[in-house]
Amino acid sequence: MKLFRQTFGEGDPLIVIHGLLGASGNWQTLAKNRFGLLFKTISVDLRNHGKSPHAESGSYAEMSEDLLELMDDEGINRAHMLGHSMGGKLAMHFALHYPERVDKLIIADIAPRGYPRSHDYIFEAFHSVDLKNITARSEVEEVMSRSIKNAGVLQFLLKNLTRRGQEFTWGMNLEAIERNYEKLLAEIKGWESFDGDTLFVRGENSNYVLDSDIPSIKALFPFSTLETIPNAGHWLHAEAPDEFSDICLKFLR
């Protein structure tokens, strides 16, 4: 599958992978103004997200094949990889299955373990909007705000709203994402460990990466280190962009 991508800068390649219901645009500021100053930074839209094609299925194995196709199209033999949340799980899966294509690996606020369902209220918020009778973006925001109280999360989700002519629509393939949701929550496994340099970065106020996750992280990524950003939550790259990018660039250099 030919993934949509945005490319900034020159140098060694760095592939940036967004999380669930995100897109490459979420990373544009950091990709352009920080990472792109030192690396050829490629921020992708995963299948069923952003401007990339839609498909019925969306497993980590299939998304890894999409990334392989992107690298081949770009003439990239090896690349650094940075993935956040679901994108971090994908980056882990890719590194464990195609270690020869990965240089350094950065995983932002996610562990390889399986996670419980936690996005059902978000899916319900999307379904609560009758797009056929919407005439303004503010109407969508008002409806979704009834169930999504966090203003930052709401604005992030509203980035999926697009307008085609006089009609509003969701840019992502919501049905496929929901259908494959359990697969995306599942544990990441590997027959062998990834022996490349790996950095896990977590937010102090997030519960996605716990101290109890460290043994399983070390089992799969024995040459990994863990950094914690104070006063940051799960969206650490948006809440603490300077601290996050400083930590990543120090590791990559």
Descriptive notes:
The protein has 253 residues and is an alpha/beta fold. 36% of the residues lie in helices and 19% in strands. It has eleven helices and nine strands. The protein has helices at 28-33, 60-73, 86-97, 120-127, 137-144, 151-158, 174-179, 181-185, 214-220, 236-239, 241-252, and strands at residues 5-8, 13-17, 40-44, 79-84, 102-108, 161-164, 167-170, 198-203, 224-229. α3 (86-97) links the parallel β4 and β5 (102-108). α2 crosses α3.
Write the layout of secondary structure elements.
Elements: E1 5-8, E2 13-17, H1 28-33, E3 40-44, H2 60-73, E4 79-84, H3 86-97, E5 102-108, H4 120-127, H5 137-144, H6 151-158, E6 161-164, E7 167-170, H7 174-179, H8 181-185, E8 198-203, H9 214-220, E9 224-229, H10 236-239, H11 241-252
Parallel strand pairs: 2-3, 2-4, 4-5, 5-8, 8-9
Antiparallel strand pairs: 1-3, 6-7
Helix pairs in contact: 2-3
